[in-house]
Specification:
The chain is an alpha/beta fold. 56% of the residues lie in helices and 7% in strands.
Length: 371
């Protein structure tokens, strides 16, 4: 499997932001609706960031979480997620194609680790139906965009082809799509709706926390071209969020969905980690040798750089969240969380060369207008 941060730092799909920008957005409302075209998130805010949750994104990530061995230092998914969801399904006496095909799907992911990059795909679509239509068309046409019924479909087929370029990859995608379609019908749609109801207070608390702290983040977000987007609460995610630029100037950052209102700040911790990711990656690249980059040292540093960089950002925009941020990421990796000040344990758990840490801090100062 690829290292955690080589996975997190991919920009492959982000390069297709212009495709999403070409889509025609419909209107939304109660009763009859016109769904946005594939790749156009509904109700994009004119400015700033909104807090939302999307079933099809969670379903897609859930499918991956049930298949892959999560060995990343900061886990891709919530600790114990697969075991918890298997227990939930057993309690409902539910078996789906995701169980039947798991071994085959997982084996192909092991043989081709690049398939994990497909986790981002659902973030580029407004609904499961849009995603399903594009995937099925791509598979039926064997990835040949020349057979697309129109230019827009050709653009979105190219988006799918970017992550699933070969016939074997598309065969995996076909099996995966069939499996999660059954999973949704037999289990996940009802489970997701119940969880949204159960976590309604937590979602409201996240929205309130974001309203309170957004002004602190604003300069950083504006000066890193992230001034508009959606903070997407996701049930499967842990401290390793997901980020995608899905349209011109519009970003989606998937963050952990806190279980309770008291834990609402966890979503902001993940957001800070994701928002600083590109800056942290640049600091690593600028402070290691080409040989170190080839050996994988860069990827190892980037994982810790994102966590440490998130803290540096928090310290500048919301310093009262700093201790909570450190405790959250210590818990994310399964480390002992001290009852007192967590700083020493945090630094020990996420070591980083001084030159890289200094570079992140200097870049943040520039972005924030500190020098």
């Amino acid at each position: 499997m690829t290292t955690a941060m080589s996975f997190r730092r991919i920009t492959l799909l982000a390069g297709f932001a212009s495709l999403a920008a070409c889509a025609t957005t419909g209107t939304t409302g109660t009763g009859g609706t016109t769904a946005p075209a594939p790749g156009s998130p509904a109700a994009q805010p004119a400015q700033g960031w909104s807090v939302n949750a999307r079933e099809h994104v969670d379903l897609w990530l859930h499918g991956y979480a049930m298949l892959q061995q999560d060995t990343a230092r900061v886990p891709f998914f919530r600790r114990g997620y697969r075991e918890q969801l298997l227990a939930e399904r057993r309690s409902r006496n539910v078996t789906t194609a995701l169980d039947v095909d798991r071994e085959r799907l997982a084996a192909r992911m092991t043989a081709n680790p690049a398939l994990v990059n497909g986790q981002f795909l659902a973030m580029y679509f407004a609904s499961f139906e849009d995603l399903q239509r594009v995937v099925e068309t791509t598979i039926r046409l064997q990835g040949d965009v020349r057979g697309a019924p129109d230019q827009q479909m050709a653009q979105y087929m190219a988006l799918v082809n970017a992550t699933f370029p070969t016939a074997a990859d598309r065969d995996w995608l076909r099996t995966f799509m069939q499996a999660i379609t059954g999973e949704r019908r037999l289990f996940y749609r009802d489970y997701w709706a119940a969880e949204q109801s159960r976590r309604a207070d937590a979602r409201a608390a996240v929205a309130a926390a974001w309203s309170r702290y957004e002004s602190g983040f604003r300069r950083f977000l504006q000066n890193t071209q992230q001034n508009r987007g959606e903070l997407l609460l996701s049930l499967p995610l842990n401290g390793e969020g997901r980020t995608a630029q899905v349209a011109s100037g519009f970003h989606m950052i998937g963050v952990t969905f806190p279980a309770t209102a008291a834990a609402a700040n966890e979503a902001l911790y993940t957001f800070a980690h994701e928002a600083v990711l590109r800056l942290a990656g640049t600091a690593v690249d600028d402070n290691i040798t080409p040989a170190e980059q080839r050996s994988g040292v860069g990827s190892a540093h980037t994982s810790n750089a994102a966590v440490r960089g998130g803290l540096l950002l928090i310290e500048r925009v919301a310093p009262d969240l700093a201790a909570g941020y450190q405790r959250y990421y210590l818990a994310s990796i399964g480390a002992t969380v001290p009852s007192g000040t967590p700083q020493s344990a945090f630094v020990a758990a996420f070591p980083l060369p001084a030159a890289i840490l200094s570079a992140i801090g200097s870049q943040l100062d520039v972005v924030m207008g500190g020098i």
